[in-house]
Amino acid sequence: MKLLTQIAQHAARNPEQIAFRTEDEVLNYRVLWDRSSRLASLIHTTQPERQTPVVVYGHMGMDMPISFLACVQAGHPYIPVDISIPMERVRLIVEKSGAGLVINTTDSMLDFDNVTVLDVQGLQLEQEELISDGYWVKPDEVFYIIYTSGSTGNPKGVQIAAANLQSFTDWMTDDFPLGQGKVFLNQAPFSFDLSVMDFYPALQSGGTIHALEKAVTNKPKIMFENLSRSGLQIWTSTPSFVQMCFPNPDFNQKMLPELEVFLFCGEVLPLAVAKELKERFPRARIFNTYGPTEATVAVTSIEITEDLLAKEKALPVGYPKSDMSILVVDDSGNPLPEGEKGELILAGPSVSKGYLGEPLLTENAFGMVNGMNAYRTGDAGIIRDGLVYCQGRLDYQIKLHGYRMELEEIEFHLNQSEYIKAAIIIPYAPSEEIEYLIAAVVPGDHKFEKEYQLTAAIRKDLALRLPAYMIPRKFTYHTAIPMTMNGKADRKKMKEEVFA
Ligand code: AMP
């Protein structure tokens, strides 16, 4: 695989170049390649059956990139699982994926039924051999699996093949002004595919990944100190993250004098955010990109120029990458003419082959268009002069502060709670972005005198099953959920009641 070959070449030519760094750790290309290749031999010995998934558990330490590359060199896909994911959900992922091995990059003790845990911190690997490239993941084999929120209550694993990833990485390095050997920001934890947007383009181009761990982003003072020392050249984040930096007036080109490019993906890039960035960073170019995890990070892009900002009321998400077709279809799946609004369908070599072990979910969302894998995004959109515009969702998948989630998944878990008879989630969105979630709850029998005690108990329950970012900020209590004529929960009426 070209990507792996190029990483090996960087390691041979520029061994001391930094591949990955965090606040406390620095990993050069030599150690990255050497350790991952030896760890691959160990994985191969314990997991001889190719393509059995390997869960890689941790946050943003250097053992994460080492383990990812080790898995794929041994012919196995990896499943990145961040420490922010509750243990019950981690267990579900380990079990449902059929993982044969969990690589633990943390110092916490992990234990799973019938699955070996390999603790890699400080693991001696010198006695292992470097693995041969004959074992590497092949183009049609799965390279990584990322779990996203699922509407039935369980996360679903999107399988990305080596060829999907190669197509994405080539597009990034060929069509964007990323150059060679640049310093890339990695803001998103590895369990989100936004992290792939900087991780592999950086490694393919011999660059440095500058990762911001949660402990850093949680403390603005530390984060801005870190950024001012970073020498960042390519910024990759959600628009929400860059907006989080705006309260600091010093967040500008003086703080990041070498910054050349902003790459955004994952949610709407508000016009006001792009305008403000242009003022703060007059020397940097800004790109909006769009795509779901199912089509390998992003499949459209556009540079946000002054002209575009002056012309558009809502920013487009861009032109399709050259090997992708994007169609707009009506409710029955028939293609619509240019300029008409419908569902966006993506077809081409970036599209995944489906969800791991979920034939029904896969059949519903994936298909073939002109002999190419195609994915129904659930995004409403329109194409004008070849330019794609996203116009919201057709279902209950949302983005909150950059995180993708299905309202139905949160509702599923709320409805499992012993304190709840029925519940629905209402997003609070005073403008084009959702600010927080409200759970409208019909309580079951409970022992609590006060509502806040009930809320605390429900939150505790939810925290066992859902990541913190999916837990509603507010809870309101009601006697019944209003119904529509056809017996479905009437979200509109409920919303009116909540905000009455
Ligand atoms: P994820 O799988 O987490 O990348 O989420 C994919 C979804 O995020 C898409 O289907 C869209 O709904 C939304 N999305 C991604 N990029 C953009 C963008 N640039 N503008 C608007 N929505 C976006």
Characterize the structure shown.
With 500 residues, the chain is an alpha/beta fold. Among the domains are: 2-237, Rossmann fold (3-Layer(aba) Sandwich); 397-498, GMP Synthetase, Chain A, domain 3. The chain contains 15 helices and 25 strands. The protein has helices at residues 2-13, 29-46, 63-73, 87-97, 162-175, 194-204, 214-217, 220-230, 239-245, 271-280, 306-311, 359-365, 407-416, 451-463, 491-498, and strands at residues 18-21, 26-28, 54-58, 78-82, 101-104, 116-119, 142-148, 156-161, 183-186, 208-211, 234-237, 261-264, 285-290, 300-303, 319-320, 325-329, 342-347, 366-369, 372-384, 387-393, 397-400, 403-406, 420-428, 436-443, 474-477. The strands form seven sheets. The chain has a five-stranded mixed β-sheet, with helices on both faces. Strands 16, 17, 18, 19 and 20 form a five-stranded antiparallel β-sheet that branches. It has a four-stranded mixed β-sheet with strand order 2-1-10-9. The longest helix is centred in the N-terminal third of the chain and has 18 residues, at 29-46. The N and C termini lie far apart (58 Å). The mean pLDDT is 96. The structure holds adenosine monophosphate.
Question: How would you concisely characterize the structure shown here?
Answer:
With 500 residues, this protein is of the alpha/beta class. Among the domains are: 2-237, Rossmann fold, CATH 3.40.50.12780; 397-498, 2-Layer Sandwich (GMP Synthetase, Chain A, domain 3).
Name given to the CATH architecture of one domain? 3-Layer(aba) Sandwich
Helix vs. strand class: alpha/beta
- What separation lies between the terminal Cα atoms? 58 Å
As a whole number of angstroms, the C-alpha radius of gyration is: 23 Å
User: Low-confidence runs (pLDDT<50, min 5 residues)?
Assistant: none
Mean pLDDT across every amino acid position: 96
Number of helices: 15
Tertiary shape: globular
> Main beta sheet: strand number and arrangement?
5 strands, mixed
CATH class of one domain: Alpha Beta
Q: What spatial order of strands do you see in the largest sheet?
A: 11-12-13-14-15
CATH topology of one domain: Rossmann fold
Strand content: 25-35%
| DSSP summary, beta strand count | 25
> What hetero molecules are bound to the protein chains?
adenosine monophosphate
Classify the helix fraction into a percent range. Answer: 25-40%
**CATH H-level name of one domain... which superfamily?**
ANL, N-terminal domain
